[in-house]
Design goal:
By secondary structure, the chain is an alpha+beta fold. It has ten helices and 18 strands.
Length: 399
């Protein structure tokens, strides 16, 4: 019979290798054309490899956990062959549980002479207190355990229990390609950029009120929930337009000023922190931004983000507040020059026109590369965001 090779596909510019994270099939299993047979993990995305033909998976050439190059041979399909039915378990072989004999009913040991010769009061107290009569030093006639002997044994301090066996105290797990890349890029960012962070706080009263008033109508019209992230993305775009240095990056001895606004939104994905990009955020409405963020977040949870989803951002917004963070210093996502960190909204007392009032307040932070962005620009940028969120009408009027 003819055979068909399963090859590592092209995975995008600059990606030359991947790790075989799991096989959905095992050798001998039946496969259908275009059915996922394996999963590859690169330093940026996870992608499935589909069967190029129907038949049986004759042989697996790249074991789970191995590193493969683009175009390498993963496995061989024997076209038209009848294979075994797949277990349907991804990447794991189903192992039947060993049947254990049903526990037999406990049998009562015959009473020892001491037990049977003890009085009924002593035996009753022993049963209620869990005392083994055979271990009691009797003081009665013929060494019988009396009521007092049992009470004394019950009140005696118990010996310390022997420590129980526990599992291993540590576990070593190889880092995924994505986690290795996250670690390298963040450390490179700290080693390369002159990172400084500036803080401010935002009164969220008006944007919360706006959201509460229109969230039902918004969801009914657009089919998506109205959150706060879209307001911050729009505010970031407006601030970037006012302070173009924050939307630029260093390339050698040149500064590259971006004339477009592709905003990365940091989210927790199936494989770790990922930063999918909302393209052309300056051209999108609040509803369109919310829809795009929801789409990208869902893909992140499923581990199905593509290379295009994650490359080319000019600025990043990270919301640690969803996890309860009150304040942090976010790390720049290179080659970008700045990142905005949102945090948890909490009711706090603040002074308003000489009066102490309780308002929902959020700390915000912008970390920036001091090689290209000065303190004046970073503070101005953050103040612009503060003004836009505290008075969302500014986003509509462009002021």
């Amino acid at each position: 019979m003819a055979t068909k090779d399963i090859l590592v596909p092209t995975m995008g510019e600059s990606v030359t290798e991947a790790t075989v994270s799991k096989w959905f099939k095992k050798a001998g299993d039946a496969v259908k054309q275009d059915e996922p047979v394996a999963e590859l993990e690169t330093d940026k995305v996870t992608l499935e490899v589909n069967a190029p033909a129907s038949g049986a998976l004759k042989e697996i050439k790249a074991a789970q956990g191995s590193t493969v190059q683009v175009g390498a041979l993963l496995g061989i399909i024997e076209e038209g062959a009848a294979g075994a039915a797949s277990t349907g378990v991804t990447g794991k072989q189903v192992v039947g549980e060993e049947k254990k004999p049903a526990p037999s009913a406990p049998t009562r040991a015959p009473d020892s002479p001491l037990t049977s010769s003890s009085g009924p009061a002593a035996r009753k107290i022993a049963e209620e207190s869990g005392v083994n009569l055979a271990s009691v030093q009797g003081t009665g006639k013929d060494g019988r355990a009396t009521k007092g002997d049992v009470l004394a044994a019950a009140s005696a301090p118990k010996p310390a229990a022997a420590p129980t066996a526990s599992g291993p105290r540590e576990e070593r797990v190889k880092m995924t390609k994505l986690r290795q890349t996250i670690a390298k890029r963040l450390k490179d960012s700290q080693n390369t950029a002159a990172i400084l962070t500036t803080f401010n706080e935002i009164d969220m009263s008006n944007v919360i009120s706006l959201r509460s008033e229109y969230k039902d109508a918004f969801e009914k019209k657009h089919g998506i929930r109205l959150g706060f992230m879209a307001f911050f993305v729009k505010a970031a775009v407006a601030a970037l337009q006012e302070v173009p240095e924050v939307n630029a990056h260093i390339d050698g001895d040149e500064i590259v000023y971006k004339k477009f606004y592709d905003i990365g939104v940091a989210v927790g994905g199936a494989q770790g922190l990922v930063v999918p990009v909302v393209r052309g955020a300056d051209q999108l409405s609040i509803a369109e931004i919310e829809a795009e963020i929801a789409r990208l977040a869902q893909k992140a949870k499923e581990g199905s983000l593509s290379m295009d989803d994650m490359t080319g951002g000019t600025f990043t917004v990270s919301n640690g507040g969803v996890y309860g963070s009150l304040m942090s210093t976010p790390i720049i996502n290179p080659p970008q020059s700045a990142i905005l960190g949102m945090h948890k909204t909490e009711d706090r007392p603040i002074a308003v026109k000489g009066q102490v009032v309780i308002r929902p307040m959020m700390y915000v932070a912008v970390s920036y590369d001091h090689r290209i962005i000065d303190g004046r620009e970073s503070v101005t940028f953050l103040v612009k965001i503060k003004e836009a969120i505290e008075d969302p009408r500014r986003l509509l009027l462009g002021v």
